[in-house]
Design goal:
The structure is a single chain. The protein is of the alpha+beta class. It contains 25 helices and 24 strands. The chain folds into three domains: about 220 residues, no CATH class; about 160 residues, no CATH class; about 200 residues, no CATH class. The strands form three sheets. Strands 1, 2, 3, 4, 5, 6, 7, 8, 9, 10, 11, 12 and 13 form a 13-stranded mixed beta sheet that branches. A six-stranded mixed barrel has the order 16-17-22-19-21-20. The protein has a four-stranded antiparallel beta sheet with strand order 15-23-14-24. A hairpin with an 8-residue loop joins strand 1 and strand 2. It is globular, with a radius of gyration of 34 Å. The protein starts with a helix and ends with a helix. The model has no long low-confidence stretch (mean pLDDT about 85).
Length: about 800
């Protein structure tokens, strides 16, 4: 019997080629979207899953006087880890991580620069389960002047030579010798911690590191099993009160994030330098929801087409029932056909996934693969999912078709009924409501991303090349600047401690306005060369730029308008010009010489923070900014590289265009916009496939009516409008439902941006017209085909 069911199912699929193809392609696209998103969600949730449980990261909430709002940071103070372990039985062990980027290592005549090296506490390898390939990695974090390097670093530095016991040198602020004690496996790509070597943090400890107040490293704790994290956090105010000066306890709060939540749950945490490929969990959930909607739309197509073609199977049902088949047997047969169709769709879906995965990996910067053979559980899961899709798609058509009464259907009295037509209309409306909603969301997401990329930030970021400096190359900055400045390809050279578009550091400062008492407050700081404002074309609202020489008043400071407003909040009505010459700055107060207009030195997700800029070249710089003249990028880059090699022989030349850096700032937003856009396109494509199938069926069933109308004088245009009008009405209703839903969702989403576009009616109208146009194009093929058919052929049997 099963074999017979299979034969009949295959014959019906082959007989109704168009509807079968529509169902298979639609289901395949929906399945492929779900599989790809499932792979992405699984990859995201796999971050740090290979480590043990009960690991948490210590974070701070900082709320300093003068800051517009409190901020969460992933950094912590140096003494916190040891103090927490000593004072709280919940803490079983701790490790702190100090990182150095572009770390130089030398072995003999060979010098390499590795991306990132960690200095850690001895329990680092007991808390985290990174694998050791050769040697003793634990000794590297126990003993000073020992180091464990990764496999990739070993190949760069030693080639095929055994690195164990070899001595390498690091030439930085001080020359340090390390003995290699181990080779470790490269950090997995789904680890938030990416390193190329580790060595002992206590081995470089200095007295100033033990002071409370400085936040410059990450602290991780291993808690006792069963620890109530909320109850543990409730003890932290007392901990801070014990160790901080009374006047500072109100500036800080401590909270903890489980390690498994750090990767996807820390998007509101700044200064989160070690969180590799951080991605918002809300975006991941959004992708999963949309992919599920796309799959549901594909299932709806099957239900629509199956119930619409019920009359074609009516006599088959009547004959089967008359010779003894019961309703469960018939329902089982129809469900079997649906599952067969789903399995065929799965094969096509797997092919589609293999084709699109390289593009998805390139877009998401992940390294996902489809583990069909390497992970049997994955294959079992998608097979079960396919069967479920078949059941969901086919349960209603199976029950509907198996309910026909043989006496009626064998007489030709098949009642499709108004309720069945109403259900199909509701399903079509549901399909297009989802598709229109996603189209509107995509348009707004793309417009917001374009707005962020094109909005004038208040400074020049085009044709600006940034070059990182370290302790060695930074000492040669003045020579590098001098040799660059004389060339006609170069429009300006300057430097700073931080790069625009990155999270800038905060610092405490003092301010004295006329005879008022000295006020302590905190703000974002930017340490720059004296010509920074000129190179970046940052506009002054009052005062003047930095002097080229140190003045008798000490350090010169320039504040932004937001900071000026904060400084004058106790002097309502005072003009910002009154701040010029006022005492301001670090412990030895300098003066405010200028006020710049607010500029967006960070992402447009955030408001412009209170900022002060100071010319302090003796502290050293970490970034050179070279402004090149338009139309000569290639020649200018070659000249800069040659000059760099002359000034810093043996040092690699690394550069980045500032606008590319800002594109990286908005990388996650760009990924979200593209993925949502792709899913929206799939939703509209599948909806149109269903609409095409229903239009084909409608034209086929009304073929004699069309013939009569043509004989009576109806034009092709009349016929097309007759066949298309009903479906266009459904699309219009879909728009009416989708509009308020999309407005609400987009309004909530745009709140996450301090600077955002307005929600305009024009976008909704545009999407409505586009959706109607797409529907008309989809329907018109069948409508025109039916309208131009010869009525003699359709009426000759009458």
């Amino acid at each position: 019997m099963i074999k017979n069911y299979f034969k009949i199912a295959w014959r019906n699929l082959w007989k109704n080629k168009v509807s079968s193809a529509i169902n298979i392609v639609g289901l395949a696209i929906g399945m492929a979207a779900c599989i790809v998103i499932m792979l992405f969600v699984t990859y995201e949730r796999s971050f740090d899953s290979f480590h043990g449980n009960d690991i948490v990261r210590l974070n701070e909430v900082q709320k300093f006087p003068g800051m517009a709002a409190s901020q969460k940071v992933g950094l912590s103070m140096f003494p916190m880890g040891p103090a927490l372990k000593a004072e709280y039985p919940e803490v079983k062990s701790f490790t702190r991580i100090k990182w150095d980027q572009k770390y130089q290592m030398t072995y003999g005549e060979k010098r390499v620069f590795v991306p990132q090296v960690f200095a850690v506490d001895p329990d680092f390898l007991k808390i985290f389960t990174f694998k050791t390939l050769k040697g003793d990695a634990q000794s590297a974090v126990n003993k000073p002047n020992s180091i464990a390097i990764t496999k990739e670093t070993a190949e760069k530095l030693f080639g095929t030579e055994d690195p164990i016991g070899k001595v390498i040198n690091h030439y930085g602020g001080d020359t340090v010798k390390f003995t290699v004690t181990a080779v470790m496996e490269n950090a997995p790509k789904n680890s938030q911690l990416q390193f190329d070597a580790i060595y002992s943090l206590p081995g470089i400890q200095q007295k100033w590191m033990d002071s409370w107040g400085g936040n410059w490293l990450n602290t991780y704790l291993k808690l006792a099993p069963g620890t109530d994290l909320k109850a543990f956090e409730a003890k932290m105010p007392a901990f801070l009160k014990k160790h901080l000066k009374p006047e500072y306890t109100s500036y800080y709060e401590l909270f903890y994030l489980p390690l498994k939540d750090v990767h996807a749950g820390a998007t509101d945490i700044g200064l989160d330098y070690l969180n590799f490929q951080k991605f918002d969990q809300k975006s991941t959930n959004l992708f999963a929801i949309i992919a599920f909607i796309v799959l549901i739309i594909a299932c709806v197509n099957f239900m629509n087409l199956s119930t619409a073609r019920s009359a074609d199977r009516a006599k088959e049902v009547g004959i089967r029932k008359s010779i003894g088949a019961n309703r469960p047997q018939l329902a089982f047969q129809f469900l079997g056909e649906t599952i067969l169709l789903s399995l065929l769709a799965l094969v096509l879906a797997l092919i589609l996934v293999e084709l699109v995965l390289p593009y998805v990996n390139n877009l998401s910067l992940r390294n996902m693969s489809m583990p069909i053979f390497s992970k049997p559980s994955f294959l079992i899961l998608i097979l079960l999912g396919t069967v479920l899709v078949g059941l969901v798609s086919g349960i209603y058509p199976a029950l509907f078709l198996s309910s026909f009464q043989p006496v009626k259907v064998l007489k030709g009295a098949v009642e499709s009924g108004k309720n069945k037509g109403m259900l199909r209309n509701v399903l079509v409306i549901g399909q297009f409501t989802s598709a229109v909603f996603l189209m509107i969301a995509t348009v707004f997401v793309v417009k917001q991303l374009k707005f962020m990329q094109e909005k004038d930030p208040g400074f020049t970021r085009e044709q600006v090349v940034t070059i990182p400096l370290d302790n060695i190359s930074g000492k040669k900055y003045e020579l590098f600047k001098q040799q660059l400045s004389g060339n006609t390809l170069i429009a300006g050279v300057t430097a700073s401690q931080d790069q625009l578009g990155s999270h800038l550091d905060q610092s405490g400062v003092n301010f004295k306005y006329n005879n008022d008492a000295v006020r302590e407050l905190a703000a974002t700081q930017l340490v720059v060369d004296h010509d920074y404002l000129s190179v970046y074309n940052i506009k002054l609202a009052a005062g003047k730029n930095f002097s080229t020489e140190r003045t008798a008043n000490g350090r010169e400071y320039i504040v932004n308008e937001s900071m000026a407003k904060e400084l004058l909040k106790d002097h309502q009505g005072a003009r910002i010009e009154t701040l010029l010459g006022q005492r301001f700055g670090y412990d030895s107060l300098g003066v405010i010489t200028g006020i710049v207009k607010n500029f967006n030195f960070n992402s447009l997700h955030y408001k412009v923070e209170n900022l002060f800029i100071v010319n302090q070249s003796e502290w050293g710089f970490r970034t050179v900014s070279v402004k090149i003249k338009p139309g000569s990028s290639a020649q200018a880059i070659n000249f800069i590289k040659t000059t760099w090699t002359d000034v810093n022989p043996g040092y690699p030349f690394e550069y980045e265009f500032l606008d590319d850096h800002f594109a990286e700032v908005y990388r996650a937003d760009n990924q979200v916009s593209k993925i949502v856009g792709i899913l929206a396109g799939l939703a509209i494509l599948i909806s149109c496939l269903g609409l095409f199938g229903l239009a084909s069926f409608s034209a086929e069933k009304r073929i004699k009516e069309i013939g009569v109308r043509k004989v009576l004088g109806a034009s092709v245009q009349n016929i097309v409008l007759l066949l298309s009008g009903h479906f266009v009405k459904l699309v219009v209703i879909s728009n009416m439902i989708a509009w308020p839903l999309a407005w609400y969702a987009m309004n909530r989403w745009l709140r996450d941006f301090a600077f955002h576009i307005d929600i305009t009616l024009g976008t909704f109208v545009f999407v409505a017209l586009l959706s109607v146009f797409i529907a008309l194009i989809t329907i018109s093929f069948q409508s025109v085909k039916a309208a131009i058919a010869n009525p003699v052929k359709s009426l000759r049997s009458e």
